[in-house]
Amino acid sequence: MKKSLTLCALLVSCAYSSISHEKKWAEFKTALSDGANLFLKEDKGFQESIKRWQYWKSPDVQAVVKVRTEEDVQESIRFANRHEIPFFIFTSGHGATQSFETLKNSLQIDLRYLDDIKISPGGSSVTLGGGVKGANVAKYLHGHGKQTVTGVCECVGFVGVALGGGHGVLQGYHGFLTDQILSLRVVTANGTLVTVSPTENTDLWWAMRGAGHNFGIVTSLEYKIYDITEKQWSVEAFTFPATAEIFRKVYTQAKKNMAVQPEGITEGGFITALPMPALNLAIIANMPLAQTQKYTQVYRDLGPLAIHAQEGTLLDVPKMLGVDRTSAVCNREHGMSDIRMPVDIPTYNVEVLAQAMERFVQIATEYPELGQSFVMTEQYPTQGVKKVDERDTAVPGRRHDLLIAPDFVFESLDREGNVNEGMEEFALKMGLEVRQMLVDGAKDMGGAMSYVNYAYGGEDVEEMYGEDWRVEKLRALKKKFDPKGRFGWYNPFVEVNVDTENGGHRSEL
CA–CA separation, 129 vs 118, rounded Å? Predict the structure, then answer.
C-alpha cells in the first residue's frame, strides 16, 4: 500500500510538473509581440532554429524565442530570470568557444528579426538593428554611396563582431568596428533597457566596446558611415607550395610590408592541406588592379604556382576571397566543427611561424580526418586603429598587428547526431600543439594575445581581455551591471558557479 501511494504521488508530481512546464511557456508566448516566435524542442521549426555554423561545444537549448521588438528582448530576459533559465544570444551561430559547453537547458534569444537599417538625415551615421548581418549593411550603404567598417565574411552577424573589437579591410582608414559605434540600446541582465553612449552610462560605454558580449543584448546601435571615395577594389591571389623555404620567404616579405603598409591594403594568408599543401596569399587593395603591381611584384618574384587577379567593388571582395554567402565556408555540412585558436602578435617571428606551419601541414596531411583544416594569417592596415587611445575602450592589443589563427576542422557529429568526443579531443590536442609553438615564439616581443571573437575559450583571461587593470575594471563593472553572471557564457572574464542540476543557472559572482 505504501509503495502504491509513493508511486501515485510521483505520478501526480510528474503530471503537475508537465502542466507547469507547458503553462509557463504558454504564458511567455502570450507576453510576446505579434510576429515573435517561440519554439520548444517538440515544435516544428526548433531544429532549424538551432542550426549553427559549427557544432564543437555548442550550447544545449530547450527553447528558441525569435524576438520582434526591444520589449520582446526585455520580456525574454525577465522570463528567463524568473524561472532561472540560462540564456544566450543568437544572430548567425558563429560563436565557437568551449565556454558554451556548460550552457544547458538554455533559452536561445534570436535577434535575426531585428534587422532594420536606416541612414540618418545628415548621412553621417546609420541606425542598425541588433540582428543585422554585416553583408546586408555593406550592400545597403553601397546603394546610397556610403560605406563603413564591417567584417569580410558575409554570413556573420554584425553586432557581435563589433562588440569584440572587430576587424575589417576599411580599418586602416577608420579603426575597428567598435570604434565606429556612436551609441547603443542595450537590455541589461535584469531586463532594463538603457542607452549607452559617451554621455549616458559611460562606464558601460567603455565595457561594451571590446567586452560587450558579457554585459547585455544590443537591440540597436548608431554607427558611423562614410562617403565612398575610391570605388575600385582588387584582389591578387598567389598560390605557393607549402614548404619551409617558401614560408620563410613569404613571411620575410610580409614583415617588411607591414612596416610600410598603406591604409587601403590588407594581406591575408590561408594555409591548406588539400588537395595539396599550399600557402595561399591574397593582397586586397582599395585601388584598381592596374595600380597594385608595385605592392604585389615582390610576391610574383617568388615564383608562385598560380596567380589569380580580380577587381570589382567592396561588395565583391567577399566573393573574391571565397567567404561570400554561397561559399563552402558559409555553407558547411551539418555536424562539421571548427576549433579556432588565435594568436595575435605585434609582428612576424618568421622562423617560428615557418616551423609552426610546417607542423600544421604535417598534421593535416598525416590525419585525413583533419584534412579540411587551415591556418589564417590576417595582416590588416592599422593606421585608423592606432588613432584611438588604447585606454578609451575595453579592446586590448591595438599594437598586436598580426592575427594568426590555426583552424582545425573535423566532423563533430556522427550520422546519428552523437558527439564524436574522441575526435574533439584529438583536434583540440593538435590545435594546442601548433598554437603553443606560436605563443612561445611571441615571448621576446611582449607575448601573444587572443582576439576574443576568435578565441576558443581555453586562453587565460589576460590573453583575451588584456592587462590587469583592464580585467579588474571589467570585473568591477560586471558586479555592477550583471552580479549574477547572466551574460557569462561567451568567453567570460569572471569565474562563476554553474548549477547544472537546476537548469544551469549561475550563482552570484
Answer: 9
